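Data card: per-record layout.
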Amino acid sequence: MRLAPPPAVVAAVVAVVLGTTNTASAGLTTVNIVSSGSQNNSPKTQGKFSGTIEYDWTSATAAALKITLKNTNTVAEEGYLVGFVFNNPGDKVSTATMATTDTYKLYGKVKATDKNNTIDANPFGNFDFFISPDGKFNGGGNGQSGGFSPGVSKTFTIALTGTGLNTLTANTFATTPDDGSGSKTANLLARFQGFKDGGSDKVPGVVAAAVPEPSLMAMGAAGLAGLGFIRRRFGRKAAA
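The structure for this 240-residue chain is written out next.
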């Protein structure tokens, strides 16, 4: 008779394979985002960025949202990242308070009495939240007064209150679209100014394809090998 390894042993090995051990918080989720496409056709005035969205709810009424963005344009391309808009998934967020980050402020659905869909991102639709130094998403400018230059990244931390916040994830913030009132639509949108030709750009962002880290791949391989060893060991005991 072949004995099966105890369920607890199998569960521990599977946790290593899946990389689910040592979770800091049950409500913590993270997604990577990357720029996708451009409002402009000229490659000389196209912005590019990457980043992460981290969401951590502590209860149904309280959560924290952390957004990190990096301007991935080259120095030769120029272009300053001067603002970023995103949405309120399911209108579940009632208030939003952002920790001070240089000159950047949070606009839109900040107070309980504020309405959603107040950030005009023409030709895209309206958005609920806007992070920027001056509160202006449309219009010209050189981007150098407050915007961050190629290669620079910034992190914005926002405390949220509302209802049903424990039903949201980082992915819902990354994939909730604008209100559809424009000729184009996006879930996330970054504003660039200060290209060499004086142009500007509005660049959608999407969830990046997940790529396993080498350390996790190594852990997974070790876990599978360990599971095979355990099964062989229990098989030998049964045969003896």
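Known properties of this structure: The CA atoms of residues 51 and 69 lie 4 Å apart. Residues 9-23 have pLDDT under 50 and may be disordered.

See the next section for split statistics.
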